[in-house]
Design goal:
about 230 residues, mainly alpha, about 75% helix, globular
Length: about 230
Protein backbone atom coordinates (compact mmCIF):
# COMPACT_ATOMS: atom_id res chain seq x y z
CA UNK A 1 0.00 0.00 0.00
CA UNK A 2 2.95 2.35 0.46
CA UNK A 3 3.70 2.35 -3.26
CA UNK A 4 0.23 1.52 -4.59
CA UNK A 5 -0.91 5.09 -5.17
CA UNK A 6 2.30 6.02 -6.97
CA UNK A 7 2.17 2.97 -9.24
CA UNK A 8 -1.53 3.46 -9.97
CA UNK A 9 -0.92 7.16 -10.68
CA UNK A 10 1.63 6.40 -13.39
CA UNK A 11 -0.61 3.71 -14.88
CA UNK A 12 -3.70 5.94 -14.91
CA UNK A 13 -1.82 8.87 -16.41
CA UNK A 14 -0.32 6.51 -18.97
CA UNK A 15 -3.80 5.64 -20.23
CA UNK A 16 -4.58 9.32 -20.74
CA UNK A 17 -1.18 9.84 -22.35
CA UNK A 18 -2.08 7.28 -25.02
CA UNK A 19 -5.24 9.25 -25.78
CA UNK A 20 -3.35 12.53 -26.17
CA UNK A 21 -0.59 10.88 -28.19
CA UNK A 22 -3.18 9.39 -30.54
CA UNK A 23 -4.61 12.88 -30.99
CA UNK A 24 -1.21 14.23 -32.00
CA UNK A 25 -0.18 16.01 -28.81
CA UNK A 26 3.41 17.25 -28.86
CA UNK A 27 3.66 16.84 -25.04
CA UNK A 28 1.23 14.05 -24.08
CA UNK A 29 2.59 13.57 -20.55
CA UNK A 30 2.12 17.23 -19.64
CA UNK A 31 -1.26 17.45 -21.35
CA UNK A 32 -2.47 14.29 -19.64
CA UNK A 33 -1.28 15.53 -16.26
CA UNK A 34 -3.73 18.42 -16.36
CA UNK A 35 -6.54 15.88 -16.12
CA UNK A 36 -5.40 14.40 -12.80
CA UNK A 37 -8.64 15.43 -11.02
CA UNK A 38 -10.53 13.24 -13.50
CA UNK A 39 -8.32 10.18 -13.96
CA UNK A 40 -7.35 10.44 -10.28
CA UNK A 41 -10.52 8.56 -9.41
CA UNK A 42 -8.98 5.51 -11.10
CA UNK A 43 -6.14 5.76 -8.58
CA UNK A 44 -8.62 5.91 -5.71
CA UNK A 45 -10.63 3.00 -7.09
CA UNK A 46 -7.50 0.85 -7.29
CA UNK A 47 -6.45 1.79 -3.75
CA UNK A 48 -9.88 1.13 -2.31
CA UNK A 49 -9.98 -2.25 -4.01
CA UNK A 50 -6.59 -3.17 -2.52
CA UNK A 51 -7.58 -1.88 0.91
CA UNK A 52 -10.83 -3.86 0.79
CA UNK A 53 -8.91 -7.01 -0.11
CA UNK A 54 -6.29 -6.56 2.62
CA UNK A 55 -8.73 -5.56 5.36
CA UNK A 56 -10.98 -8.47 4.48
CA UNK A 57 -8.00 -10.79 4.84
CA UNK A 58 -7.44 -9.33 8.32
CA UNK A 59 -11.07 -9.91 9.26
CA UNK A 60 -12.02 -6.23 9.46
CA UNK A 61 -14.09 -3.89 7.31
CA UNK A 62 -12.78 -1.18 5.03
CA UNK A 63 -14.68 1.45 7.01
CA UNK A 64 -12.90 0.31 10.19
CA UNK A 65 -9.79 2.11 8.93
CA UNK A 66 -11.56 5.39 9.64
CA UNK A 67 -11.97 4.49 13.33
CA UNK A 68 -15.18 6.50 13.46
CA UNK A 69 -16.56 7.55 16.83
CA UNK A 70 -20.27 8.24 16.37
CA UNK A 71 -20.38 10.35 19.50
CA UNK A 72 -17.72 12.67 18.06
CA UNK A 73 -18.77 12.99 14.42
CA UNK A 74 -19.82 16.64 14.60
CA UNK A 75 -16.79 17.58 16.68
CA UNK A 76 -14.48 15.73 14.31
CA UNK A 77 -15.88 17.64 11.34
CA UNK A 78 -15.34 20.93 13.18
CA UNK A 79 -11.85 19.80 14.13
CA UNK A 80 -11.21 19.07 10.45
CA UNK A 81 -12.10 22.67 9.66
CA UNK A 82 -9.66 23.80 12.33
CA UNK A 83 -6.88 21.71 10.83
CA UNK A 84 -7.16 23.45 7.45
CA UNK A 85 -5.12 26.57 8.39
CA UNK A 86 -2.39 24.45 10.01
CA UNK A 87 -2.19 22.07 7.07
CA UNK A 88 -2.22 25.00 4.66
CA UNK A 89 0.70 26.55 6.53
CA UNK A 90 2.64 23.29 6.12
CA UNK A 91 1.83 23.19 2.41
CA UNK A 92 2.79 26.82 1.80
CA UNK A 93 5.91 26.57 3.94
CA UNK A 94 7.00 23.31 2.34
CA UNK A 95 6.50 24.56 -1.19
CA UNK A 96 8.19 27.88 -0.48
CA UNK A 97 11.25 26.27 1.11
CA UNK A 98 11.47 23.60 -1.58
CA UNK A 99 11.25 26.22 -4.32
CA UNK A 100 14.02 28.20 -2.64
CA UNK A 101 16.25 25.14 -2.35
CA UNK A 102 15.66 23.81 -5.86
CA UNK A 103 15.05 26.94 -7.93
CA UNK A 104 16.58 29.68 -5.80
CA UNK A 105 13.30 31.56 -5.39
CA UNK A 106 10.13 31.21 -3.35
CA UNK A 107 7.19 29.63 -5.18
CA UNK A 108 3.51 28.90 -4.53
CA UNK A 109 1.61 25.58 -4.62
CA UNK A 110 0.17 24.38 -7.90
CA UNK A 111 -3.57 24.80 -8.23
CA UNK A 112 -5.89 22.87 -10.49
CA UNK A 113 -5.53 23.47 -14.22
CA UNK A 114 -8.30 25.04 -16.31
CA UNK A 115 -10.69 22.35 -17.56
CA UNK A 116 -13.99 22.28 -19.48
CA UNK A 117 -17.05 22.93 -17.34
CA UNK A 118 -18.19 19.36 -16.61
CA UNK A 119 -14.70 18.04 -15.69
CA UNK A 120 -14.10 21.21 -13.65
CA UNK A 121 -17.29 20.60 -11.65
CA UNK A 122 -16.23 17.01 -11.10
CA UNK A 123 -12.80 18.21 -9.97
CA UNK A 124 -14.38 20.45 -7.34
CA UNK A 125 -17.44 18.52 -6.17
CA UNK A 126 -16.55 14.82 -6.45
CA UNK A 127 -12.83 14.13 -6.81
CA UNK A 128 -11.58 15.90 -3.63
CA UNK A 129 -14.02 14.01 -1.39
CA UNK A 130 -13.01 10.56 -2.66
CA UNK A 131 -9.34 11.55 -2.80
CA UNK A 132 -9.16 12.95 0.71
CA UNK A 133 -10.69 9.91 2.38
CA UNK A 134 -8.84 7.34 0.26
CA UNK A 135 -5.44 8.94 0.77
CA UNK A 136 -5.88 9.17 4.53
CA UNK A 137 -7.09 5.56 4.70
CA UNK A 138 -4.13 4.38 2.64
CA UNK A 139 -1.32 6.01 4.58
CA UNK A 140 -2.60 6.83 8.06
CA UNK A 141 -5.39 4.30 8.34
CA UNK A 142 -3.62 1.26 6.90
CA UNK A 143 0.12 1.60 6.24
CA UNK A 144 1.31 3.57 9.27
CA UNK A 145 -0.08 1.43 12.11
CA UNK A 146 0.97 -1.80 10.43
CA UNK A 147 4.53 -0.70 9.69
CA UNK A 148 4.72 0.59 13.24
CA UNK A 149 3.55 -2.75 14.62
CA UNK A 150 5.85 -4.81 12.39
CA UNK A 151 8.94 -2.68 12.99
CA UNK A 152 8.30 -1.84 16.63
CA UNK A 153 9.43 1.71 15.88
CA UNK A 154 7.17 4.75 15.64
CA UNK A 155 9.99 6.91 14.25
CA UNK A 156 10.76 4.42 11.48
CA UNK A 157 7.09 4.09 10.56
CA UNK A 158 6.67 7.88 10.43
CA UNK A 159 9.78 8.32 8.28
CA UNK A 160 8.87 5.58 5.80
CA UNK A 161 5.24 6.58 5.39
CA UNK A 162 6.04 10.31 5.22
CA UNK A 163 8.58 9.69 2.46
CA UNK A 164 6.26 7.62 0.29
CA UNK A 165 3.33 9.94 0.95
CA UNK A 166 5.44 12.84 -0.26
CA UNK A 167 6.87 10.81 -3.14
CA UNK A 168 3.45 10.18 -4.63
CA UNK A 169 3.30 13.89 -5.48
CA UNK A 170 6.31 13.37 -7.77
CA UNK A 171 4.12 11.29 -10.06
CA UNK A 172 0.82 13.15 -9.57
CA UNK A 173 1.12 14.16 -12.31
CA UNK A 174 4.37 12.75 -13.65
CA UNK A 175 6.44 15.37 -15.45
CA UNK A 176 9.80 14.20 -16.71
CA UNK A 177 11.84 17.04 -15.22
CA UNK A 178 14.27 16.16 -12.35
CA UNK A 179 14.25 19.60 -10.62
CA UNK A 180 10.45 19.64 -10.72
CA UNK A 181 10.32 16.10 -9.32
CA UNK A 182 12.71 16.98 -6.48
CA UNK A 183 10.72 20.13 -5.75
CA UNK A 184 7.48 18.14 -5.53
CA UNK A 185 9.05 15.59 -3.18
CA UNK A 186 10.62 18.09 -0.78
CA UNK A 187 7.65 20.44 -0.86
CA UNK A 188 5.22 17.68 0.14
CA UNK A 189 7.17 16.35 3.12
CA UNK A 190 6.10 18.92 5.77
CA UNK A 191 2.38 18.37 5.26
CA UNK A 192 2.81 14.59 5.11
CA UNK A 193 4.60 14.70 8.46
CA UNK A 194 1.96 17.03 9.88
CA UNK A 195 -0.91 14.72 8.94
CA UNK A 196 0.90 11.66 10.30
CA UNK A 197 1.67 13.34 13.63
CA UNK A 198 -1.93 14.53 13.95
CA UNK A 199 -3.16 10.99 13.33
CA UNK A 200 -0.80 9.63 16.00
CA UNK A 201 -2.36 12.12 18.42
CA UNK A 202 -6.01 11.61 17.47
CA UNK A 203 -6.14 8.05 16.10
CA UNK A 204 -9.23 9.11 14.10
CA UNK A 205 -9.17 9.82 10.38
CA UNK A 206 -12.33 11.88 9.93
CA UNK A 207 -10.81 15.27 10.94
CA UNK A 208 -7.83 14.72 8.63
CA UNK A 209 -10.00 13.47 5.77
CA UNK A 210 -12.28 16.51 6.08
CA UNK A 211 -9.33 18.92 6.06
CA UNK A 212 -7.76 17.07 3.11
CA UNK A 213 -11.04 17.14 1.19
CA UNK A 214 -11.67 20.87 1.73
CA UNK A 215 -8.14 21.91 0.82
CA UNK A 216 -8.17 19.95 -2.42
CA UNK A 217 -11.63 21.25 -3.28
CA UNK A 218 -10.49 24.83 -2.72
CA UNK A 219 -7.41 24.31 -4.91
CA UNK A 220 -9.52 22.81 -7.70
CA UNK A 221 -12.06 25.61 -7.45
CA UNK A 222 -9.35 28.26 -7.72
CA UNK A 223 -7.50 26.60 -10.58
CA UNK A 224 -10.18 24.78 -12.59
CA UNK A 225 -13.59 26.33 -11.97
CA UNK A 226 -12.91 29.97 -11.08
CA UNK A 227 -11.32 30.77 -14.48
CA UNK A 228 -14.54 29.60 -16.16
CA UNK A 229 -16.68 31.75 -13.89
CA UNK A 230 -14.61 34.86 -14.39
Amino acid sequence: MLVARSVLAVAAQGIVVLVFAARGSASPWRDAGLWLPVYGTLIDAGCLLLLWRFTRREGIRLVDLLNLDRSRLARDVILGLGLVPLSLACVLGGVALSSLLVYGKIGLPQLGAPLPLVPALYAVLVWPLIWGFTEQMTYNGYALPRIRALSGSTALAVAVVAYWWAFQHVVMPLIWDPPHMLHRLLGSLPNALFMILVWLRLRRLLPLAVAHWLMNAAAMFAGSLWPLIT
